[in-house]
Design goal:
Layout lengths: L7 E5 L4 H12 L3 E6 L2 H11 L2 E4 L5 H9 L5 E4 L14 H29 L2 E6 L13 H20 L5 E8 L6 H6 L2 H9 L7 H13 L8 E4 L20
Parallel strand pairs: 1-2, 1-4, 2-3, 4-5, 5-6, 6-7
């Protein structure tokens, strides 16, 4: 049990992976956790395990989000739900762009807009945005739209600190590198192949590592705002340098 003044939390993307791990970790701290995701069956299992309160609502369902927040005091908002799609800007599709913007960015903005007034009224709250190192670094062959949405979440996290200046409301961005979750399997459409390609020969982060990072920020003394955490596997680095050879000038 921690000394946190927070009583309730809302975690999006809560049915598996990082989101489910955050639900477990915050529940252990004595916080009443509201778990939001589309998969009702997984949410019910998580509720049986942790005592969390499940909400089978899509983050793209604006009316559903508004109805939920209208009856709920949210002390801690964890914007965790996210999607990724293959392809860069040269071969993405309109549907992929809309889906990534809707889930990775629009939902974060809308939920934050909905919960902040209550936090201001109570002068108590904590917004935790799960972004990605993709929002800070360019990867050759990376998913351009995904990178762009995560960069926007990074910018939002910084701006929120300015918007909420002078109040007892904290903002934390947690930016993970490779975490062993189902997202890679969904991305390539084959969970077994994703495990083989991305995890079997690597020592990746686990969802619990990110959940513990979130808990560190949430449980920190109120005088302390952990504004940004970049969490990488010990054996992974970011950055790099590529230099293409000269080609003939176009005729």
């Amino acid at each position: 049990m921690s000394n946190t003044p927070y009583r309730t939390a809302l975690v999006t993307g809560a049915s598996s992976g990082i989101g489910a791990a955050i639900v477990r970790r915050l529940s252990e701290s004595g916080i009443e956790v509201h778990a939001l995701a589309r998969d009702a069956k997984r949410l019910e299992a998580l509720a049986s395990e942790t005592g969390c309160i499940p909400h089978a609502v899509s983050v793209s369902d604006q009316a559903g989000l508004e109805a939920l927040i209208a009856g709920l005091e949210v002390d801690v908002l964890v914007n965790n739900a996210g999607q990724s799609r293959t392809g860069n800007i040269t071969n993405t599709t309109p549907d992929d762009i809309d889906a990534l913007v809707d889930v990775n960015l629009r939902a974060v903005l809308q939920l934050t807009r909905l919960v902040v007034p209550g936090m201001i009224e109570r002068n108590r709250g904590h917004i935790v945005n799960i972004s990605s190192i993709a929002g800070h670094y360019a990867f050759a062959g990376g998913n351009t739209v995904y990178h762009t949405t995560k960069a926007a979440v990074h910018s939002l996290s910084q701006q929120l600190r300015c918007d909420l200046f002078g109040r007892q409301i904290r903002v934390t961005e947690v930016s993970p590198a490779r975490v062993e979750t189902e997202v890679f399997g969904r991305l390539i459409g084959d969970m077994a192949e994703a495990k083989k390609r991305f995890f079997d020969e690597y020592d990746s982060l686990l969802p619990e590592d990110i959940a513990n990072s979130v808990a560190f920020a949430v449980e920190a003394p109120q005088r302390m705002n952990v504004s940004f955490m970049e969490v990488l596997p010990t054996m992974q680095v970011v950055g790099g340098l590529n230099f293409a050879k000269k080609t003939s000038a176009p005729g």
